[in-house]
Please model this.
Amino acid sequence: MIAAVLLIALSACSGTGTEASGVPAGDDPVTAPSARADRSPRPELGWGLTHTQWSADVGDRAAMERVRRAVSAVPLPQVQHIMGWGAANPEPSPGRYDFAALDNRMEFIRKTGGTPVITLCCAPDWMKGGRPGHTDWSEPSLETAPDREHYDDFAALAAAVAERYPDVRHFIVWNEFKGFFDETKQRWDYEGYTLLYNKVRHALKQVNGANLVGGPYLNMDSLRPGRTTHTSHLSGPWGSVDQRVLDAFDYWNAHKAGADFVVVDGSSYTHDDERLADPFGATEKFTAVGRWLRTRTALPLWWSEYYVEPNSGGDRWSERLREAVQATAMIAMVRGGATTGFYWNPQERRGPCPGCLWRSTELTDGTGGEPLPMLDLVRRFQAEFPPGTTFVPVGVRPADGRRVRVLADREAALVVNTGDRAVRVRVDGRTLDLESHEVRWLARE
Model:
């Protein structure tokens, strides 16, 4: 389901990295002087972002500095993959490393005071039938899982990454089961993924027992109601989650060697890019999925990616509507028990970029690196509702306020008018006049 969104990042990967030999991991770990390995890391990180192909580590110097200041204002947890999405092939040939691009991303995260998270995906070509020293950056190649005979090699690469970045304590194993679909059985190869996961987890814990590891990073894909195959009881107006996804989660959950947090991703629209409910109502999927997962595990719940805007159909949302739907989705994730979520930053190099967190740092007209509304939302959500927040109920009146969503703790409240017209309501004992699709923060006394 994320394929269309990922195309922006993946299609650009053909020019991602060099094949130059890097310093072997462990010989010269790249750690900022102020970076410190946390001996007691928390498995809940709150709300942050994922870096994609074009981020803020290259471009106009003034633009990059604007982003650094903006992201530093509220330090955010930040995710970076080890290969693709802005990172070069980390091990083009067995034992030959190239961490230069990954070093740049990790340095950006450190300079902004963020908590670094590494996603251990994807695999060098030689681990999946390719030629050593060669990198095929096409989407089919990048989304190929390592061969089973190379699971130990991938686990060793994961350990090398952990040794190179000793201040990183949070690791996600693989991404969306890429390459693990069994075409013959028409289901996910959850046995293969779980075997890889267990080997990688063991390798990371051998490097440092304080390293926190999570999976399975499943796409909680949903189908249109009325389908006769692969539908499940986990359903709503937004569709029905594919039963094969639920089976994969249950197998991993039962056979994993351990986990420190659970990772999933998904969209409020279907596998076929259909939005079955209104955009706000469709976000209820995030609550439903979270509550289903809570029946399976008490581990902290992470949403590694979350999407609310279909990629096809010619939708051209205003930034105001986009922010309102995204805020509603974050509220829905919290109501489903999530403690961590990462906004997938769809950064473009030039021109308009709907939903981006900041303007491209390659713009040299003085606007490069300027923060955009989605960054404001993510920063404020993290500042007001960090890990450990105790949420409290808040009433909304009168009846026509049913379209208003509220999330609150003892100090702040997030209020979203999901309606396309203005409304007057009483929230938390005060009268509010909300414009259509308005997102408003309130300080509570």
